[in-house]
Amino acid sequence: MRRILVGIKRVVDYNVRIRVRPDGAGVATDGVKMSINPFDEIALEEALRMRERGLADEVIAVSIGPADAQQQLRTALAMGADRAVLVEPAAGAVIEPLTAARILLKLIEREQPQIVILGKQAIDDDNNQTGQMLAALWDRPQATFASKIVIEGTTATVTREVDAGLETLQVDLPAVFTTDLRLNEPRYVKLPDIMKAKKKPLEVLPLAQLGLEPVRRLQAVKFEPPPQRHKGVMVKDAAELVSLLKGRGLL
After folding, report:
1. Which segments within 15-141 are labelled E, that is strand?
2. Helix (H, G, I), strand (E, B) or coil at 112
3. Are 140 and 132 in contact (CB under 8 A)?
4. Is the dihedral of CA 114, 183, 136, 5 positive or negative?
5. Do residues 178 and 145 make contact, with C-beta atoms less than 8 angstroms apart?
6. Mean per-residue pLDDT for 219-226?
7. Least C-beta-crowded within 10 Å: which of 80, 100, 155, 205?
8. Are 60 and 73 in contact (CB under 8 A)?
9. Residue 177, phi then psi, degrees to nearest 5
10. In sequence order, which residues have a C-beta less than 8 Å from that of residue 113 and are 6 or more positions away?
């Protein structure tokens, strides 16, 4: 069976205003709406479109996190994923990108997908590392920041966004792709799909069952909100603006 594996991360919804906890030890999440990481949602949409074009038989959504992450996996199932897998670490464990890549590699060895699609980064930590690390561990090609993916047989042609413009790569499958914003627009989930998703298989695997232990390499010392923006200054005309900028050494 031709499979596509899609990584899903549970993050604070992008519409929520982030608040730092009073003790500065992290971000307040109590009572806060959580959602699928937007880049991962794009990755899932691309996998579903590939299946609809007959390029795959099955789309598997996987996530690493607490039991609450089942909610986001159910959303992925409602979008159209065939089944889902949640790898659940011990309470309080911090999963860094390298550990996440090793977990995904274990799932790849079990599921044998031809394509793995991840969001290019998560909006909570912005690391942009897991896809690249996974490709290195798997020893397979990677195409990151994809804005277009065309599959022909066992080859993928990928247009990716780089600082200088657009770059086109050709890679052999199996391969790892990470998605950029312009790849597609995720579909809207309808109520009947949500109801159907409740009957789709969702497997929960304790992290220890995969023979892995999370390793902590980085320690977050303190969280601080960004400084408040100062009130703007009103000027009468362009001449006054130029004079003001010169006075502040900005021109």
Report:
1. 34-36, 58-64, 83-88, 115-119
2. coil
3. no
4. negative
5. yes
6. 86
7. 155
8. no
9. -120, 145
10. 3, 4, 5, 60, 174
- Which residue bears the tokens 């086109």? 168
Residue carrying structure tokens 């502040």: 248
Find out whether 12 and 122 touch, Cβ atoms under 8 Å.
no
- Among residues 105, 117, 124, the alpha carbon closest in space to that of 55 is found at 117
In single-letter form, the type of residue at position 20 comes to: V
- Cα–Cα nearest to 10, from 83, 90, 64, 89: 64
Q: Is the dihedral of CA 37, 83, 75, 187 positive or negative?
A: positive
Query: In the β-sheet with 115-119, what is the strand arrangement from edge to edge?
Result: 165-172, 155-162, 142-152, 175-179, 115-119, 3-8, 58-64, 83-88, 202-206
> H-helix or E-strand containing 74?
helix 70-79
Domains of the chain (ranges; CATH) run 3-247 (3.40.50.620)
CB atoms within 10 A of CB 173: 15
Q: What is the DSSP letter of 173?
A: S
Omega within 30 of 0 (cis) for the link into 66: no
Q: How confident is the model at residue 1 (pLDDT cuts 50, 70, 90)?
A: low
pLDDT tens-place string over residues 129-171: 999 999 999 999 999 999 999 999 999 999 998 888 899 999 9
Check: CB of residue 3 under 8 Å from CB of residue 107.
Answer: no
